[in-house]
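Two folds, back to back.
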Amino acid sequence: SVVGWRTDGTGEYPDAKPVTTFSEAENVVWKTPLPATSNATPVITGNRIFVCSEPTTLICVAK
């Protein structure tokens, strides 16, 4: 059971089953073209997904 935001604070998730492979057809839930590269994590709120694009662009995509 999850105790807090990062469980019990150990940083360990023994039951985790993370995805280890990605391709155009495997383990991709959605994608959209961006005008430039981005190293930011998408933020999902409601029906919107916010992503950054270098150097200073914020993009909002309908979910």
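---
second:
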Amino acid sequence: RPAPRPPLALRPRRLPVTRIEELIRDPYAIYAERVLGLSPLDPLDRPPDARDRGIVLHSVLRRFIAETVGQMPGDARARLMRIAEEELARMVPWPAERRLWRARLERAADWLIAGEAERLQAGRPVALEVRGAITLDLPAGPFTLTAIADRIDRLDSGGLAIIDYKTGKPPQPKRIRAFARQLPLEAVIAEAGGFTDVPAAQVERLLLVGVTGTGEGGETRCLGRGAEADFDPPVERDRLVALLARYDDPAFPYTARLRPQFIHGTGPYDHLARLGEWEGGEAEEDGG
């Protein structure tokens, strides 16, 4: 199993929150991306995928939320679908995919609008797709954690809610606590006042809104705050500092597939890690 140990001077001093899960699961991918400077190329005639759907969904919702920031209008459904038509025409060059994605949004529209109306009863959006960052003091020097939050609401109680939109079912709280740390780490940044034009305040809740177009239209996961709940920003910060500090030791390796739970399929750097040469053998050894 590859476990490179690059010199400290070559190790990254900056990562986005979206790459922390990769650092936990497959540190070798961070090594290939951030130390070797390798990026996967899109194949020729790449078919549209979940990433494309996510980009379109975020574009549609950004416009819809901006237009309905005060209160949900009576023509909310028609407005949402008009925006969807415009964004699909602008961003999706594949006619068949446009029809499929429009149908998915149409099936999710009532559920999505009801959820947005409920969120407006608790507060108001103060930032959409807003950039943020904090600097952490580590043994080898400062380390910068960056983020782009889909949406931050100022709640009527005075606290903040951070909302993330996805095209698919949101992860379970157990997985979030173990691996999917994006939103809890965005809470760390928000409480430090690290998001542009969003003053520091306590983050009271995290919401993952999964737009699926099946069943009721989607699924929302709400994470509560506190030591016995789903996230606790001071604890999250300490966990992150402990994780990153390990990589400030030149002897600590970027091990391939360190924690492969919930990894489905292959990653863009698995061929460099020669995954097929060792994965099956290690599984047999572990089982024997």
